Amino acid sequence: MLPLVEFALSNAVHASPGFTPFNVNGLANPRVPLTPPRRGSRISGGGIADRLADISPATVCKQVDDFVSLRLSVLRQVRDAMAKSQDLQKEYADAQGRVSAVFKTKLRPRFIGPFKVVANKAPAYTLNLPKKMRTHPVFYVGLLKPY
């Protein structure tokens, strides 16, 4: 079942590059069993040696040059389409204005300070905290670290 899913994904046109992965890799989409054969194609492969004998080296060089230029053209189109898609995705992400919450808790410093001790009440200490911290200034001794 998995090979069929992989084949279907590779044979579908993707939004970013505008091509199928088969087309990008091999410059052609594979024929599926329901695809009718093209006219003049020989499924059996008979007579291929006769056709290859008639090909001149100049024709082969031209075909190779055409293949390479087509390949480079497709790769250039894919690269441009991917860059355009990345720019569009960046615009959408920047428009959301989300800030990562990773640094808010996970990598935040565990201890801050030093702060001046104002009072000592049994197992708790009252600290002189700035108003902008907006937290209660009395802490249990186990939560404090000597400076």
TrEMBL record:
<dbReference type="Pfam" id="PF24626">
    <property type="entry name" value="SH3_Tf2-1"/>
</dbReference>
<protein>
    <recommendedName>
        <fullName>Tf2-1-like SH3-like domain-containing protein</fullName>
    </recommendedName>
</protein>
<dbReference type="InterPro" id="IPR056924">
    <property type="entry name" value="SH3_Tf2-1"/>
</dbReference>
<feature type="domain" description="Tf2-1-like SH3-like">
    <location>
        <begin position="103"/>
        <end position="147"/>
    </location>
</feature>
